[in-house]
Amino acid sequence: MLEEVAEIVEAAGKIAAARFGTDFRRWEKVPGQPVCDVDLEVDAFLRDQLNALDSEAGWLSEETVDLSDRIERRRLWVVDPIDGTRDYVRSRPGWCVSVALIEDRVPVLGALAAPLRKELWTASRGQGSWRNGARLRVSARTELTGARVPADSLPKVDRDLVPVAKPNSIALRIAMVAAGEADLLATLRWGFEWDIAAAALIAEEAGATVTGALGQPLAFNTASGEAFGVLISTPGIHAAAVERLRERALAVV
Question: Both 20 and 128 in a single domain?
Fold first, then answer.
């Protein structure tokens, strides 16, 4: 099914790309959380196409009212029609369409389409992950000091890390770890499953260690549709990253 999902996600990316930089309607769901009518258009397209592919799967999307019956289903589509909307509305390329298929609470298929970056990322559980057909593999870094982190800036306590260019899309930042273009991605806040589901599988299949902010396993199709933080890194630095971030994470959770 991965090929069909990838084709659908790529088509959704083309819909968003066709309206990129045009005079579409935009507003804020809550302060600091932009949304636009392109989000809704892509969401409707994805729901129609993915439901035709697997009508028995539940549905969880950033731009659709959540239906509680999804948690009773074995499979679930987890969708972010435009991850990185802030970059999209500002005519920047750091956004993507993100789709994952969850089965028994773990991602089994994932695809990201970032048309302005000319990137299509895909993964299937146990079969590896790919960008534009090239197999992905995390870096071999084993020392936390010097690790590359997608960030605009770093706090003083983390100045031994190296910031690298950061797209607004968290899915693309996670994918950077999968591609060996970053070594560590961490968030210390509650977030939504649709932000991370597809990219987490892409990173895991590239050899990354994928957990929550405290090192806990990630679970999907939860009642809230949320998870506390994400910590994705090369295997050789993951334990050190968990230890460094533990106090900060506990202060939030």
Answer: yes
Q: What is the helix (H) or strand (E) element at residue 248, kind and residue range?
A: helix 235-252
Residue 21 DSSP class:
T
**Separation of alpha carbons 108 and 116, rounded Å:** 26
pLDDT in tens, 117-162: 999 999 999 999 999 999 999 999 999 999 999 999 999 999 999 9
Whether residues 200 and 161 fall in one domain: yes
User: Facing residues of 33 across strands?
Assistant: 30
Q: How many CB atoms lie within 10 A of CB 91?
A: 10
Neighbours of 155 (CB within 10 A): 9
Q: Identify the helix (H) or strand (E) that includes residue 52.
A: helix 37-53
The helix or strand, by DSSP H or E, that contains position 227, with its residue range, turns out to be: strand 226-233
Torsion sign across C-alpha atoms 110, 116, 233, 192: negative
Instruction: Specify whether 101 is located in the same domain as 191.
Output: no
